[in-house]
Amino acid sequence: MAWTDERIDQLKTMWEKGLTASQIAEELGGVSRNAVIGKAHRLGLQARPSPVKEKDTKAPVVADIQSGETPDALAAPFATDSNEAEPSPAEIAAVEDEAEEAEEDANETAAEVRAAQPQFRSIGPGGFVRQTPGEQQPPATPAPPRRLVPARPGADMAGKTSLLELNDRICKWPIGHPGEPDFHFCGEPANPGFPYCVDHCSSAYQAQIPRRDRRAPPPLPFGGPRR
DNA sequence: CCCTGATTCGC
DNA sequence: GCGAATCAGG
């Protein structure tokens, strides 16, 4: 399958929208995840957070947390559309869980940094550790969890099953066409072992009828396959 | 195991 | 230029 201008355009927009390489490959069809990644890099598209990137255990992260700043990496996936309705309680809970996780991570990092620094201090009677005057500091107040709201699809997609919600238990029968504004999937429970619900399985899988018993098919509305 | 993106290298 | 194979983290 060739990289036509149109397909390259689709790749670019989906990549920039943050879809994963697998999702893009599936949507484009005829290409692998690797092909998508390879093409994205050749096109010079922005690199995305990779699981293989080198880790950054330095101080800046700690400083950001203590100054009450949320690291961009945390905030970015939840870009807020100011016109959106209130998130459901479940969504808020999910977001807050993530915030707590991030906080724990930050605390761990701070502890590690502290432990790594050489300590010069005296030991008091009974073995307690004396604190030097310079070490007196108020307990670190954790940054208040920022209220992060996940982006949500527009109202016109309410109740429609999107590409992102597909799994092997729901019907993947496409409704409409990729690229159209309300393109979505059937979303009914799938017939176990099949990618579609019972209704759409009956469209997808049809028994062969002997040629002589077949009626001439009606003319196809779109003029038939292109040659 | 599954997923992810990055990189390499033969075609 | 392309993408399968591979790597490596989550």
Automatic annotation (TrEMBL):
Pfam families: GcrA
Region (Disordered): 47-155, 208-227
Compositional bias ranges of the Acidic residues kind: 94-107
Region forming the signal peptide: none
Bias type Pro residues, positions: 217-227
Top-level division of the source organism's lineage: Bacteria
Name listed for the protein in its UniProt record: GcrA cell cycle regulator
Taxonomic source organism: Sphingomonas jejuensis
